[in-house]
Amino acid sequence: MRAPCVLASHSPGPPRRRSVTFTYLRATLIHVRQNVTLALPAETLRRLKVLAAERDSSISRMLTEQLDELLDRESGYDAARRRALASLERGLPLGMPDRVPWSRDDLHER
Prior knowledge:
Helices cover 45% and strands 9% of the residues. With 110 residues, it is mainly alpha-helical. It has a domain at 58-90. A two-stranded antiparallel ribbon has the order 1-2. 0% of the residues are buried.
């Protein structure tokens, strides 16, 4: 982006006009967080505070890490479940030709 710049001149006469190039860099980091209210028993809250202090962490950070792990496990479970159901739908190769050489009546003949 070019912006004209008027420079003051110490010499007699009108000021000189020069173009000076400015480079603008703007970075915006957005951390979207939402507060959540939890109802915890007093003893659980006390133990959480102690654990967070021992780990040099916060209750919020510890809960976020645990919930992220839970969500990762659940999404892994869902993916594995979809793969298993698709495999059942395809069936397993049992060494049989595409068309069986017998009919139902042949099998139930008495």
